[in-house]
């Protein structure tokens, strides 16, 4: 006899108080319910119930076995439910948050492919450069750039890292000269996202390890830093996806193109109890497909 069916009969017998009540609940005969119970006792070589003409009592082993059967049946039901979710088409609203530059230049150009693939999903995308609280603010997934805190209670899927590029306008370089070595940055205006963002600037030389490049202008937006560089306000270090088109058009000049600048890690993060959602799962897998971890994030359409 099927073991799980026998366990269900036994659990209901304990909870309903009799084999006949369990049989009615399951839609089987009392005789069949009795066979399930005897099958369990034979399999275990242990008595589960002490039965008299008026009532039944759990044996000591039977009481422990009842609790174990309930847990096993719960796990089986939960697994079945998860399997059903795997086959459900993604549907409903998915709230996403991403940094402004990534969201504008990398995410938006590929979203049409996702929405064509999953027409029943509605997307709400919030672009901001602060770290959001997924649980409190109701986001199902966030794109995070940079190193993640080790104690963050999130599941992180790596995406293609940000490739950084250092650029300045032809006008700025005509006025201030072309930096030939990293040490030369000490004598230039280095546009900064924030005071701590200067840590991203290369400091391969010992001199730079003790002195930071100057940053008279700080702007908390990558696009604004790009525009500042275009207008000759200084040297900018930003993702290649933001600057590459301007370099190709001659509006910006790439500095130190022969040197490998550090990448910045990119992750899709979500709360650990949310991945059973078909729409979240489909979107995370789509991000990994579009931005595979082994690649760098390019500017869409750029060579």
From TrEMBL:
It comes from the Bacteria. Keywords: DNA-binding, Transcription, Transcription regulation. Residues 1-59 form the HTH lysR-type domain. InterPro entries: LysR-type_TF_proteobact-type, LysR_HTH_N, LysR_subst-bd, WH-like_DNA-bd_sf, WH_DNA-bd_sf. Pfam families: HTH_1 (PF00126), LysR_substrate (PF03466). SUPFAM superfamilies: Periplasmic binding protein-like II, Winged helix' DNA-binding domain. Belongs to the LysR transcriptional regulatory family. This is LysR family transcriptional regulator. The lineage of its organism: Bacteria, Pseudomonadati, Pseudomonadota, Gammaproteobacteria, Pseudomonadales.
């Amino acid at each position: 006899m099927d073991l799980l069916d026998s366990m269900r009969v036994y659990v209901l017998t304990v909870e309903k108080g009799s084999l006949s009540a369990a049989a009615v609940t399951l839609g089987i005969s009392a005789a069949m319910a009795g066979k399930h119970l005897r099958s369990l006792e034979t399999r275990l070589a242990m008595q589960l119930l002490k039965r008299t003409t008026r009532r039944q009592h759990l044996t000591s082993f039977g009481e422990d076995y009842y609790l174990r059967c309930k847990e096993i049946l719960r796990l089986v039901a939960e697994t079945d439910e998860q399997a059903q979710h795997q086959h459900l088409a993604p549907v409903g609203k998915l709230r996403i948050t991403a940094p402004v530059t990534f969201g504008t230049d990398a995410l938006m150009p590929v979203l049409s492919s996702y929405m064509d693939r999953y027409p029943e999903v509605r997307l709400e995308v919030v672009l901001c450069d602060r770290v959001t609280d997924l649980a409190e603010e109701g986001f199902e997934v966030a794109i995070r750039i940079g190193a993640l805190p080790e104690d963050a209670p999130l599941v992180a899927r790596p995406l293609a890292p940000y490739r950084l590029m250092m650029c300045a306008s032809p006008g700025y370089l005509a006025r201030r000269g072309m930096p030939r070595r990293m040490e030369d940055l000490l004598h230039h205006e280095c546009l900064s996202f924030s005071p701590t963002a200067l840590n991203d600037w290369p400091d391969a030389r010992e001199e730079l390890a003790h002195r930071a490049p100057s940053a008279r202008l700080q702007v908390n937006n990558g696009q604004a830093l790009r525009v500042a560089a275009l207008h000759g306000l200084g040297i900018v270090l930003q993702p290649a996806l933001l600057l590459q088109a301007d370099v190709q058009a001659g509006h910006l000049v790439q500095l130190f193109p022969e040197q490998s600048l550090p990448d910045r890690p990119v992750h899709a993060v979500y709360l650990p109890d949310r991945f059973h959602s078909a729409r979240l799962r489909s979107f995370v897998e789509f991000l990994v497909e579009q931005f595979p971890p082994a690649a760098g994030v390019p500017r869409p359409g750029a060579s």
